[in-house]
Amino acid sequence: MTDVHTPRESVAAGGEATESFGITGTGPDSTGTGGGTGASAGWLRWGWRQLTSMRTALVLLFLLALGSVPGSVLPQQGSDPAAVQQYFTSHPALAPWLNHLGLFNVFAAPWFAAIYLLLFTSLVGCVVPRTFRLAGSARTPPPRAPRNLSRLPQSASFSSGLAPAAAVDAAAAMLGGQRFRLRRPASGDSGHWVSAEKGYLREVGNLLFHLALLGVLVSIALGGLFGYKADKLLVEGQGFSDTMAALDEFHPGRLVSGSDLAPFSLTLDRFSASYITSGQSRGQPSDFDAHVTYTASPGAPSKTYDIRINDPLSVDSLKVYLIGHGYAPVFKVTDAHGNVDYDEATPFIPANTGTFMSDGVVKAPDASLGFMGVFVPTAVSVGGTLESVFPAADFPAVSLIGYSGNLGMNSVASQSVYQLDTNGLTKIAGSPRLMLPGQTWTLPGGRGSVTFVGVKQWVSLAITYDPGQVPALVCGILALGGLLLSFLVRRRRVFVRAAPAASGTGSVVTIGGLARTDASGSFEDEFAALAAELADSTGAARPPEADGSPGAAEQKREPKNQSEAGA
Amino acid sequence: MFIAKRRTVVTVAAVAAVLLAGALAVTLTQGSGQASGVTYVDGNNAQRVYTVGHRPLAPDFTASSLTGTRISLASYRGKAVVLNFWGSWCPPCRAEAPTLAVLAEQYRSQDVSFLGDDVGDTTANALAFTHDIGITYPSVNDANYSIVQEFSQVVPVGYTPTTVVIDPTGHIAGLVIGPVTYQGMTTILHDVAASR
To answer: Which residues are CB-neighbours of B159 under 8 A, at least 6 positions away?
Structure first.
């Protein structure tokens, strides 16, 4: 058990190893450096110390939090590009400036990445050396016993019938039995003494905390490299397979390719939204339920699930969240010859999330017809204007404005499915036309017809895969555990010296105790119990006497020990 | 003092090495270079030819066509197949369709079959379009992208339209990401015919 390594000076002195944190405000130490290279090395070292100081890490952490604020206040390109577009229309002067600053895509902005990388470097640069130091500290044997034990915060002495060497042996055996780490005099050291130290678990906890902190950083990086986020809009009855081409939005991590996606597929069987029908909060949603059938991989058995808000579907280590819903009126469009050219549930986007009055377009390029529409789930006429009074589809109606002509869809350029470019199109007479489910509008001039067949609902799903989530959680728990360990366990030292008694037989045994970190102040009780046990084991002639004289001020770690010493 | 300085230098070097290694790993695994066994047509990486020995096996499928008949890819063995992933809702697909219709007629006598895979579409919309353009070759109904998903495991079918050229042995010999061009397709089909 006795360690023969020479203890490091700083520890042997009974103090804490000095931390590199908080060295700020001083310039590089230029002493001993000659010439330009030396000076620049000095400045580099100074810069590095600044970067890895606790203050810088905290400032960076604060900046990161501050930088995230616009990300939650302003609409973001990644999560809601339509809202960004809307912001540009409503704030034409301000939006371009915000865009220049990257405030519509905060988490991908260079300045955000700079903060994150600096914080990462700062933390790594601060945690790695600290880890080595803590590992060293956990291995260090206790220091030699001080010459004058009565100057320690806790001390006691008694006389023993045993010779000094035997008394110290007995004390060492007793302390060893209590799982103290021991140090005995090396050859050449004079005197009979034993140093004992306990509570190394504190350093282990501290080490665990720092390693787990690094683990959290690595987990976040793991999520950024191998994770992905995707959005998919699905109408009741529609399905999709998790493949890049099928996704509406796809934000892969740095190292994710199309073949890395989990091969699940999912069909939306039905969606139901419940609303409060009376009272103050009439029209407020009370429940959403997307009933889906899914298979984890092609050929696997299909299962069903009800995705609700905060109750995502977990499939193959990824999660599918319900993030939005709306109405998809079903239209059937025939051309001039009576051929059905369009038969589809068309998602309309809610313009008012309270009443679910929604906008959308129907494009039937093969019939050379296009329609801009407004859908109202519960229609009323307010002074001749169509309004919605309730979000549920209790009395659905659509109002269509028809256009005829070439919709420009046979060109390589992509176009939004939610917008109709009416340039070059002819507005059809009789627009706008109000229609109820089942009604057909026969277009004038033999252009064909449009039928409002009925209403389906759509849901917007967010698919997320973050391989760093579980490691981050585990590391977070370990960090907390380590922190608790380092707070609750204290390192304490006990020294025993024995000197020949003045009478010639037996010895005088002095015991000194020191708690290196005693937040709770309960070391006194432990020391008193230990002193009694030591007296027992060394065959004391009389019980230990607490030393009344307090130790020298510079030896004190806790001022209150001064008055309570030896109690 | 000297030990403290050396420790700082060692730490800085270690952190720099880790960051550099990370950056290097990201760059290398990103695969900016051209994979072996793949040549780009006209230097365009959206048009690729896989050389014999590096051709991935095309996943087989059996599905209903837009007109209701059963079609299986395996039944095309012995012929080259041009498989086009498209949707009537997708403007670039509509733009390339006349080219594909012309190519299909032209290569009919050379044992090259054309087949469509209609994704995210309704049958009514799809048939209206094929009638409109005059496409006579069949398309399978792949509304939920399940065939795309299987192909994306072997070749990058991450975008609609994408066109895959399958050789008579059922291996993928060519790939066009985005709308096809007449010249690009004839080059790829010539390469496939030459490698028989």
So the answer is: A244, A245, B177, B178
Task: Dump pLDDT digits (tens) for B78-107.
Answer: 999 999 999 999 999 999 999 999 999 999
Q: What is the pTM of this model?
A: 0.70
List the single residue in A with minimal CA-CA distance to B144: A240
Strand B139-142 relative to strand B112-119: parallel, antiparallel, unpaired?
parallel
Rg over alpha carbons for chain B, rounded to the nearest Å, is 23
Residues 6+ apart with CB under 8 A from A410: A365, B91, B94, B95, B97
Q: Which of residues 269-308 of A touch B (CB under 8 A)?
A: 298
Helices (H) and strands (E) in chain B — how many of each? 5, 9
Task: Give whole-number Cα distances, A435 to A398, A401, A427, A432, A459, in Å.
Answer: 5, 11, 18, 10, 24
Whether A262 contacts chain B with CB within 8 A = no
Hey, is the C-beta of B12 within 8 angstroms of any chain A C-beta? yes
* Among candidates A238, A340, A408 on the partner chain, residue whose Cβ is nearest the Cβ of B124: A340
Of the candidates A263, A272, A288, A286, the residue with the CA atom closest to the CA atom of residue A236 = A272
Confidence of residue A80 (pLDDT cuts 50, 70, 90): low
C-alpha–C-alpha distance, residues A279 and A288, integer Å: 20
Mean pLDDT of the region B158-179: 92
Check if A254 contacts B (Cβ < 8 Å): yes
Chain A, window 170-229: residues with a beta carbon less than 8 angstroms from a chain B beta carbon = 225
| Shortest Cα distance, chain B CAs vs residue A461, angstroms | 15
Measure the CA angle with vertex B45, ends B116 and A265; round to 5°.
45
- Dump the DSSP string for A113-178: HHHHHHHHHHHHHHHHHHHHHHHHHHHPPPPPPPS-GGGSSEEEEEEESS-HHHHHHHHHHHHHHT
d(CA A557, CA A561): 8
Q: What is the residue whose two structure tokens read 């001993």?
A: A32
pLDDT band, very low/low/confident/very high, at A22 (cuts 50, 70, 90): very low
Check pLDDT > 60 for residue A423: yes
Interface pTM, i.e. ipTM:
0.81
A2-16, A249-263, A404-418, A456-470: lowest mean pLDDT where?
A: A2-16
CA-closest candidate to residue A468, choices A220, A243, A258: A220
Task: Name which of B95, B144, B146 is nearest A410 (Cβ-Cβ).
Answer: B95
Interchain proximity A246–B92, CB inside 8 Å:
no
Of A471, A541, A496, the closest CA to residue A156 belongs to A496
pLDDT at A503 over 90: no
User: How many Cα neighbours within 13 Å face the side chain of B72?
Assistant: 5
Cβ contact B145–A125 (<8 Å) = no
CB contact under 8 A, B91 and A410: yes
Q: Are A386 and A379 in contact (CB under 8 A)?
A: yes
> What was the pLDDT predicted at B30?
42
Q: Do A245 and B11 touch (CB under 8 A)?
A: no
Taking the C-alpha atoms of residue A299 and residue B188, their distance in angstroms, rounded to an integer, is: 33
Output A58-64 pairs: Cβ under 8 A, ≥24 positions apart. A60/A115, A60/A118, A60/A119, A60/A122, A61/A119, A63/A115, A64/A112, A64/A115, A64/A116, A64/A119
Q: Determine contact: B86 vs chain A, CB below 8 A.
A: no
Which helix (H) or strand (E) is A37 found in, with range? helix A35-51
Report yes or no: A415 at the B interface, CB cutoff 8 Å.
yes
Rounded-to-integer distance, Cα A458 and Cα A398, Å: 17
- Per DSSP, B102 falls in state H
Residue A438's CB is within 10 A of a number of other CB atoms, namely 9
Span B43-47, average pLDDT = 76
Token pair, residue A349, equals 């986007």
Within an 8 Å CB–CB cutoff, is residue B146 touching chain A?
yes
Which of A240, A344, A412 faces B145 most closely, judged by CB atoms? Answer: A240
Ordered DSSP codes for A57-90: HHHHHHHHHHHHHHHHHS--TTT-HHHHHHHHHH
